[in-house]
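Example 4.3 (complexes with small molecules)
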Amino acid sequence: MSEALIDITNHKPAARETLLSAQGLCFDARGQRLIDSVNLEVATGRCTVIMGANGSGKSLLLRLLHGLITPSAGTINWRGGSLDHVARLQQAMVFQRPVMLRRSVAANLRFALKVRGVHGAERKTREAEALALAKLENLKDKPARVLSGGEQQRLAMARALISTPALLFLDEPTASLDPASSLAIERLIETARENGTTIVLVTHDAGQARRLGDDLLFLHNGQIAEAGPVTRILEAPQSEAAQAWLGGRIFVPDNPKSETI
Ligand SMILES: Nc1ncnc2c1ncn2[C@@H]1O[C@H](COP(=O)(O)OP(=O)(O)OP(=O)(O)O)[C@@H](O)[C@H]1O
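Answer. The structure with adenosine-5'-triphosphate bound is encoded below.
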């Protein structure tokens, strides 16, 4: 059996602790099935990368897994139990475009701690650590919304990591950043992993997937077309959808002659 921890074939998963799993997950909107019968398992300590064409359902899947939207069918389990409010506090999410409070950099960080009931001296210590981690000490009193895109994304990462989440969802966190800022975000992701945070990362960047990922889940039309180790899929994709996408082609299931873009 392959090392894949995302089980789409009903094989038994590898013997690692499952942090998050989904069974038969579906999401419908306006009469359309946008996420279709997704089964997956995310194991503790791994970095699972989700790739797929624009509109294949990557963001929707992350939102479902983080409990931001309700599935039309199927179940999501967190550490073997349900994905409730307490479970969600053990997770964090960073979006492509950071959503900042109209407050200072430091106040944005403090808010994340307040929500999780961290007060007093510990709040101060964690705030200082997060500012240092994201190299934002000199900007701590600035309004968060005037920061550059790269600085805002570092703040979004620091705010997500300040509570040392068990699982961090990242939705194209470097899509609008230059190479230096992207590298800074990748370093923060690596640090998070070293500190024990499990990662689920949506990216279109195969290099980033290779640098950071262990397992890859390839989505096509809301379904998992292929799942397995990142290097295996990037080097030798087996599904037509992944082959076409990685080869720079559009795959239209009803039209076997895929177009080159
Ligand atoms: N609330 C909604 N109602 C109806 N359709 C939606 C809704 N949310 C997303 N969609 C549609 O679902 C499909 C998947 O969207 P999603 O944002 O998950 O794609 P994606 O794979 O993340 O794409 P991209 O790579 O462009 O970010 C798209 O066709 C989108 O228009």
